[in-house]
Specification:
The protein has 249 residues and is of the alpha/beta class. The chain has two domains: 8-52 and 236-247, no CATH class; 54-233, Nucleotidyltransferase, domain 5. It has helices at residues 36-44, 53-64, 130-133, 135-146, 152-160, 164-188, 209-216, 235-247; strands at residues 8-12, 15-16, 23-24, 48-52, 72-78, 82-88, 91-92, 192-196, 225-228. Strands 7-6-5-8-9 form a five-stranded mixed sheet. A two-stranded parallel ribbon has the order 1-4. A two-stranded antiparallel sheet has the order 2-3. Helix 2 packs across helix 8 and helix 5 (152-160) packs across helix 6 (164-188). The protein is globular.
């Protein structure tokens, strides 16, 4: 039984800055610069331990999810933002600056002419992977191409029912995803990459994705498995729950 003295683990976008003790790098920008863990501890009367939501997601899938059989796991969030988490031997790797896995805020690799300089990002730069691969980015791409407004899931459905604009947007999205994942593989060479977040539920994204990634990666062949999360939209919360028993062993 868990006592009230034990902490509550929370999965949150962003991370706690080692320099200030405040939230940084959150795409929920209202959290940035705030002492979220301390505020919650005061309200709840409990110790709070906060971890990046993509790290929690990756841990969930590495412990007993789609990558339970893998040693080095990279977890990808494709949702309102684009995040990543690294797990080695079922341990989260946050990094010295607590930014390990933040592939979403690197430039889109091998950009085509029309992709330069890229859309502005909340981080202050332009052309970040997140500005091309998030759900809002896919919706923006479809709106600019077709003049119609649809959310990501509806775009996937439209593509299946003969909407040529939707199909073209998904094809371009898949190529951009492959470019980004190839860079991850070049840097980390993980055993498995697990996709999560709302866009990971679009089945068409996986069609031919491995071959596209192999074409961009720096190797004669790539056998890295790219799979959908086993624990669905609850995986980040599950990962936060896993942090306590793993940390206490």
């Amino acid at each position: 039984m868990i006592s009230v003295a034990e902490p509550i683990w929370i999965a949150s976008p962003g991370a706690i800055s080692k320099r200030t003790g405040l939230i940084k790098n959150s795409n929920s920008t209202g959290l940035n610069g705030k002492p979220l863990d301390r505020d919650l501890a005061e309200r709840l009367g409990r110790n709070i331990r906060l971890e990046n939501d993509a790290n929690c997601f990756a841990l969930s899938e590495a412990v007993d999810g789609a990558a339970a059989d893998a040693r080095v796991v990279f977890g990808v969030i494709l949702g309102t933002g684009v995040g990543g988490g690294l797990v080695i031997d079922k341990t989260t790797i946050a990094g010295r600056n607590r930014i390990a896995g933040e592939w979403g805020h690197k430039p889109l690799p091998w950009p085509h002419g029309e992709e330069r300089p890229g859309p502005p990002c909340y981080c202050g730069k332009t052309g970040c992977i997140e500005t091309f691969l998030s759900g809002p980015a896919l919706a923006r791409e479809y709106r600019e191409r077709s003049g119609k407004t649809l959310l990501a899931e509806a775009i996937a459905t439209a593509a299946q029912t003969g909407d040529a604009d939707a199909a073209a947007c998904l094809e371009r999205y898949r190529d951009r995803l492959a470019r980004g994942l190839a860079t991850v593989i070049d840097l980390l060479d993980p055993d498995k990459i697990v996709l999560g977040g709302g866009l990971s539920n679009i089945a068409q994204l996986y069609e031919g994705l491995a071959a596209l990634v192999a074409g961009y990666a720096f190797s004669d062949a790539i056998d890295t498995a790219i799979v959908r999360a086993a624990n669905g939209d609850s995986s980040g919360v599950r990962g936060a729950a896993w942090l306590w028993p793993i940390a206490s062993t």
